Amino acid sequence: MGLTVGEVALIAAGIGLASPLIAYWTTARLDRERWIRAERSKVYVDMLAVYGRMARNVSHQEEKYHLLSPEKWRLLQARVEAFASNRVIALRDPYLNAWNRFVEEKAELDAVDEVTDSSTAELLEQRKHLVDEQALAVGSLYLKLSDAIREELKVGRAAPKL
User: Fold this and answer.
1) How many whole angstroms separate alpha carbon 98 and alpha carbon 104?
2) Is 9 domain-assigned?
3) pLDDT digit of tens for each residue in the chain (162 aa)?
4) How many domains, the chain?
5) What angle, rounded to 10 degrees, do the helices at 121-153 and 86-114 form?
6) CA dist 128 to 111, 121, 133, 151, 156, Å?
7) Owning domain of residue 106
8) Could you tell me where the DSSP H helices lie in 59-120?
9) Which of 5, 78, 124, 127 has the smallest CB count inside 10 Å?
10) Is the residue at 13 inside a domain?
């Protein structure tokens, strides 16, 4: 059974009417994806800057780390939740847990360090060991997080200059 000229004309008209809608929908979807990638990139740069300073503070490569204001911290975490991939969020959570444990252990070490009693020497050494373990965990988890971000952004690690 063949199509008549009228049927072909109706099909052509339907395609002619539908194609701008399809093009608009496709363009809008691509623009949205491009915007999400751009926002994700900005969030990742902010994450690397803030979390990197935290990790360098732990490893004593930088002077005192100054906490973000609670409002800025909440805004960063909200942007991370909104735009970061599930993989990056899965790596961020253990990193922040290790950071929090480091801060707690460091505060306890500082409290024990203030006591000059000779009986606290062993406790002081134990605390120093725990702080060092948490510092290593923070550094290791930061490297995993930054590697995952670089992989998502398809940015290779720069080769060291000799």
Assistant:
1) 10
2) no
3) 688 888 888 888 888 887 888 877 888 888 888 888 899 999 999 999 999 999 988 887 666 778 889 999 999 999 999 999 999 999 999 999 999 999 898 888 887 766 666 667 777 888 888 889 999 999 999 999 999 999 988 855 555 554
4) 1
5) 160
6) 12, 10, 9, 35, 35
7) 40-153
8) 70-83, 86-114
9) 5
10) no
* Domain assignment of residue 110, yes or no: yes
The identity of residue 69, as a single letter, is S
Nearest-Å Rg of the Cα atoms of the chain is 27
Rounded to the nearest angstrom, the gap between the alpha carbon of residue 111 and the centroid of all alpha carbons in its chain is 32
In a domain, 67, yes or no: yes
> What size, in residues, is the chain?
162
Contact status, residue 149 vs residue 42, Cβ threshold 8 Å: no
Residue at token pair 């930054």: 146
Q: Phi-psi bin for 111: left (phi > 0), alpha (psi -120 to 50), beta?
A: alpha
60: helix, strand or coil: coil
Tokens 């800025």 appear where? 72
* pTM score: 0.74
Cβ proximity of 104 and 131 under 8 Å: no
